[in-house]
Amino acid sequence: MEPVACSRRLDANPSCEVHLLQTASTLIPGDTVWRRCEAARVAVLNDAAAYFAALRETLLEAQDVVYIIGWDIHSKTPLVGASGRADDGLPEQLGPFLRALVRRRPALRINILVWDFVSFYASEREWNSAAKFTADTDDRVRFHLDATLPFGSAQHQKIVCVDGSLAFVGGLDLTVRRWDTSDHRADNAMRCDPQRKRYPPFHDVQCLVDGDVAERLFELAEERWRAAGQQADERRVLKSARWPTNVPVETEHLPVGIARTDVVSPAGSTIREVERSFIAGIRSATNFVYIENQFTSATRMARELAEQMRRVPSLRALIVAPKLHSSWLESQAMQNGRGAFMDCFGETGVADRIRFVYPVSRSGNKEAAVMVHSKLMVVDDRILRIGSANLNNRSMGADSECDLIFEAATEEHRDVITSVRRRLIGHFCGLDEHAITQNEHRLFALLDEVSKARGPQTLRKVESSVLTSTLATLVQPVADPELPLHLERAASRMWSTKTLIGIASIAVALFGLAMAWSYTSLSDFADAGHLSTLLSAYSQSIWGPPLAVAAFVVGGLVVFPVLVLIAATAAALGPWLGFVTAMAGVLVSALILFAIGRVLGRERLQRLLGRRAARIQERVVGKGVVAVVVIRMLPVAPFSVVNVVAGASTLPLRDFILGTLLGSTPGILAMAVLGSQIAELARNASWSNMLLLALAFLGWLALCAGAQFVTTWLAGRR
């Protein structure tokens, strides 16, 4: 079905109203989609248990090349179905399973590409994932972190392609805390992470396709692999991969478009097919729009839907979202955006025809909100959309995304799309498809009745709420940007009076603190001997080391001389306990200040420092561990300032920690070993004590030079 004249490019005149006829296609290559093709067969996989079981069976039959493209991955992901067990003789966990698979099939190659995440997510990611996937595979499992996207952007596509003939696309990553069955029981004991910690019910949707669309998705995966600097494998000519036996085919020969968001050049030109296809689908709606989405903060999409509802009085909408966001950071970043999204419908006067709801599961007296992670939209009985794109700003223009948009060409296709929508709504309410069909004309009333009945599953209204904290105001534009955070452009902006006052205030405050510790009555406290005496009172107590670490944290916040703290700790607690305690204090203080820098944000820092500092910082950050080691060994800037600036840069957390350890160890070790002499010099200066101090200083320099040589050599080899 070809697009008719009214389906012109949506970006030709964004303000124009495009009313797509029921006979028009929204799949316009080069505009709303990258490719328009056909899915020979389609299956909708509701929740991770169904997806993981289908993927496992498919991978067992893989012969040539597999691409796994994702936002995250974890070697301990349980790649199992609803039973929670595998009966094929291979390991159940993803990493060991893939390694065993390539040993079983010597011709098989598996390429894994996931986002090289920012340090905000470090605590949630697996340490040293690459080795856990690639060990003992003779380079037939290749693992690469994609760091090619601009700062502020993420690799967010979730695609698995098998032999170029089968492909999975949707919202699910092959990582932990995703597995769940479609009943979303509140007390499912199998829903736990590798640390055996329980996590709430989790909902997502993936689709399985074959035919021409699978071939095009394989091309897309190869493009991403090459764009990340990797060499693509040559493919053999194979028969089509076998469709998993336990996956029912929903329909056949269904037209489908592949829509992307992608940043394709450093200058910032962006492929925005996802955004345009969302708009086209919404503008074609006449009866019912059903949406499941983790994030709803793209107010342009809300305004488009609200305006279409105003134009078409019969149009209703149901949006299923999480009750709360899964982390504190996501709440700070996205909650205000969701409130603004919801407010658009009240402002347009159509709030009575749209429902925002979240699913709840109950087992006995235990109740749990279901985490909605899916990215799905159904428009009337004509369009089914499944992919990775959230309804937030970053999915429209900052991240890499991939959605499949299925469009009905026959009455059978329409029936299938309608059935998918009814099944999804029903599974949240504990109702079958027939019950939803019988009550679809009064769906909102039915949802109210199910909620009041307090059954095992229900949908409840999401309440609009806004965070008024300063932090939420600062985090939201950085966490949910409409475009990548181009630092050069941000740094080139004119300095405002407010910015100049801010810079002057910070500089004066830091300078004043530094001077105060040296030339005011505060200097009495900035004395190694004085501090050593205070800490010595607790030297035989279990509270001695914690108090010393706390002193490092407080000292870092007030720009207290860190060398004084190290010397005092070593003198009070002895050489070895003093060394361990001082190192712990330095690391804890550094990490807290690093986190403060992360909260302030790199873009804000560059705006303050200007274009030249942006370039300098890029060069320094690029050297990673070496840069941190050098600046730790040559304290040209206060300890506290270095930590904050490092946090505000793109320096990876692992490089910061390793560089701090390597750069600080020689000095702390020298002071710990000679701590008593340093403290004695502070109390009673003498030529002998001064000589010992001079020797300690020379020893420190020698250790620094040796560590710097080794670090530079290792970095060069890497």
Task: Summarize the structure in short.
The protein has 718 residues and is an alpha+beta fold. It is 46% helix and 16% strand. It contains 25 helices and 19 strands.
Number of DSSP-assigned strands: 19
| CATH third-level topology of the largest domain | Endonuclease, Chain A
- Which class of the largest domain in CATH terms? Alpha Beta
Regarding quaternary structure, what we see is single chain
Overall geometric form: globular
Profile the largest sheet: 17 strands, mixed
Contiguous runs where pLDDT drops below 50 for at least 5 residues: 1-9, 11-22, 488-496, 605-623
Cα-to-Cα separation, first versus last residue: 54 Å
Strand content: 15-25%
**What helical percentage do the residues reach?**
40-55%
- Structural class from helices and strands? alpha+beta
Number of domains: 2
CATH superfamily caption of the largest domain: Endonuclease Chain A
Could you say what the CATH architecture of the largest domain is?
A: 2-Layer Sandwich
- Tell me the Rg in angstroms: 29 Å
Count of separate DSSP helical elements: 25
Rounded mean pLDDT is 80
